[in-house]
Design goal:
The protein has 313 residues and is an alpha/beta fold. The strands form four sheets. Strands 1-2-3-4-8-10 form a six-stranded mixed β-sheet, with helices on both faces. It has a four-stranded mixed β-sheet with strand order 7-6-5-9. It has a three-stranded antiparallel β-sheet with strand order 11-12-13, with no helix packed on it. It starts with a strand and ends with a strand. Helix 1 packs antiparallel against helix 2 and helix 1 (10-21) packs across helix 8. Strand 5 (98-102) and strand 6 form a beta hairpin. The protein has two domains: 2-208, no CATH class; 229-312, Arc Repressor Mutant, subunit A, CATH 1.10.10. 36% of the residues lie in helices and 25% in strands. The protein has helices at 10-21, 29-53, 122-139, 166-170, 179-189, 198-208, 216-219, 261-271, 278-285, 290-298; strands at residues 2-4, 61-70, 73-82, 87-93, 98-102, 107-111, 116-120, 147-153, 159-163, 173-175, 243-244, 247-250, 255-257, 275-276, 303-305, 310-312. The chain is globular, with a radius of gyration of 23 Å.
Length: 313
């Protein structure tokens, strides 16, 4: 069964908000757009592989998008399949065209017919995930269950090439649709091995999961002043629609929207700070009335900290 489902990652939501708020002519605009496209492609690839892994849900326990803390640092894994005999880490790579695994120099080169780009070696990445998961299990005083790792290429049309030990790479790397077969094959080899209290491990991992996060503003060396303020029209996307009586009016669409401000507040909480004061909300939404902003925030799903006088999720 699946006990942890995949949702839109927090970092992807931050990049979507940043792409909305950054002016097209900004020096970092192209850089942000590239990162957004990469993360969207990665998320789409993960969902493709989820489809194949779901075939194992009737036999084993599946957790998607797992992020744990070990030695004060977080580490993230795309998928965990947990059985009575082992844990399987499946890391997803969303390459199009062809991918070359240089097993000698421990690097990968992706070619899409137009450009070539080097990446961190995926096998090294997933080996590090395995090591950190072993450390986490030890920290939690959980059984030392065997851990296996695979790299799943999400696109069936992506051609895989190897320089060096082809057999070593082939044991770990394959297309997403082949992952269930590989796991079932390994399970057959472990049938007569020790049986672990895997449900205890499953729920310990789920209960300790945190949401993987990055400060995207810091990564791209951006400040709040780089962001465009105001409320977007939900239909045409025009930025800066004014507040009217009990709503927001877009002069281009000639329509009124009651809750058009909610995505704007979310953008602020994602990019600027995880909390917002009334005065900050007035400036961000471009509303001059403090009483209007107070009503907006009171009717939102935010919680009010009376001591600090700010609103937060």
């Amino acid at each position: 069964m699946e006990i942890k489902y995949r949702t839109v990652p927090l970092v992807l939501r931050k990049y979507e908000a940043l792409a909305r708020r950054l002016r097209r002519g900004h020096p970092k605009w192209a850089e942000v757009q590239y990162e957004l496209a990469k993360r969207r492609k990665g998320y789409a690839g993960e969902k493709k592989v989820d489809y194949y892994l779901r075939m194992l849900a009737s036999k084993f326990t599946i957790l998607h998008d797992v992020c744990l803390n070990v030695n004060g640092q977080t580490f993230q894994m795309d998928n965990l399949i947990i059985t009575p005999h082992a844990i399987y880490i499946i890391d997803v790579k969303s390459y199009h065209g062809s991918i070359n695994f240089d097993h000698i120099l421990k690097q990968s080169i992706h070619a899409d017919g137009k450009t070539e780009r080097g990446y961190m070696y995926p096998i090294t990445q997933v080996e590090l995930q395995q090591y950190k998961l072993q450390q986490w299990l030890l920290e939690q005083s959980l059984p030392s269950i065997p851990i296996y790792h695979f790299v799943a290429i999400s696109e069936p049309s992506t051609s895989i090439h190897v320089k060096g030990d082809e057999e070593a790479v082939a044991k770990i790397v394959g297309h997403g649709e082949d992952m269930p077969r590989r796991i079932l094959h390994q399970e057959e080899l472990l049938t007569n091995g020790p049986v672990f209290q895997h449900q205890q491990i499953c729920y310990a991992i789920k209960n300790n999961c945190v949401e993987f996060d990055l400060d995207v503003m810091d990564i791209h060396q951006l400040n709040q002043s780089d962001l465009q303020q105001g409320v977007f029209c939900p239909e045409c996307g025009y930025l800066g629609i004014p507040r009217t009586h009990s709503g927001w009016y877009c002069h281009q669409c000639q329509k009124k929207y009651r809750n058009a401000h909610m995505p704007a507040i979310d953008d602020y909480l994602l990019l600027v700070k995880p909390r917002i004061r009334n005065s900050e909300c007035m400036e961000w939404l471009k509303v001059n009335s403090r009483s209007t902003i107070t009503r907006i925030l009171q009717n939102s799903d935010l919680l009010y900290d009376a001591k600090r006088r700010w609103w937060m999720k």
